[in-house]
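Much of what follows relies on a compact textual record of a protein's fold. With that in mind, consider the following protein and its fold in token form.
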Amino acid sequence: MASKINIPDIYDKNVNFLIGSGASAGLFPTLSLQVRDDFGEKMTIESLATAFEAASDARYIPLFMYYYTRCVRPAQLYDPANVKSEDKIRVLDNYKTLLRTILTALQRRKPLDKRCNIFTTNYDSCFAHAADALIEESAIDFVLNDGARGFRRKTLNARNFNSFLCQTGIFDRTQSSIPQINLIHLHGSIYWKKEGTGIAVDYSNPATADLIDKQTMNSLTPFSTSLWDDGLTYSEIPTPKITQSKLENFWTTYKQLPIVNPTKWKFHETVFDEHYYQMLRLLSYELEKPNSILITFGFSFADEHILHLVERSLSNPSLQLFVCCYDSAQYERVQKTFRAFKNVTCIQPGASNINFDEFNRTVFTLESTLPDSAPTPGGDTP
């Protein structure tokens, strides 16, 4: 049992983060639902979609209509300049705080070793906006590497995560890497689009035309409402009265979106398969390196692909996994899931749940002073 992550113990190791939808809670909805399964347990969009898919249920596509309107579309339309709610502003501020903490720790590492990886299952734009805000403040010099290269046309390639920006002194007598965070989207990004055989990245305008018209939305309302009735089981969810042609038209267009569907068989449904597999392999390679650290936050391990990958990687005895549990129920589940592994530390909630505020304030914080013997920020190497 632990209540915090001691940064001075890990800052000089191969540090990786796995950030899930819980980090964006309050700004974008999570996958949670209130409707229950046959055993009385509350379901998620992922578990419900998996059940519908396995039974070839007619409610499968309507569920993704709900998922699109509730989770995908808000992320496409998000612009922090238009956000007035203090609670929503605080979410992006927490992303900025996390980046500041990481970058401060990286500054204390060896001159040519100031890199870490953030793997995220979120396809929203929070990290991109938070990084832009920090750069505009001119307080920290760093690189957020999204794996894309190009000028007017940026293209994504996994090999780009292996590069870093090096700064040299006068006459090239000294050199030091600029702190770099690799941002790896395991489930896609609203900024991606398929272009030929590759993936183009365009930050100019992620919003596309709405895939659902107002009439279809009205027809979907009883179905959507039932998903939040904890007195219902999933078999009692009504089938919305939407024409087959509208269902097919939605599904054809929806499948072109550059995001991974929340189902157990998600890789059967996307044209971005190859890149997603490369990103999972990259996660696996990083966790197999000596003295590796993986810190998870806002991630439930409901994604079986990632869960099994992490379980396999834990055979690396020098890998240390820190799982930040939102509440006591998740703590119990995670303890049970990883009970066979000694190199897993579950961060247990205290008096309050571990939301993003609490994570930045008490769990992953710079309150513990980094060692004085570490290289000074910006220190060069001959």
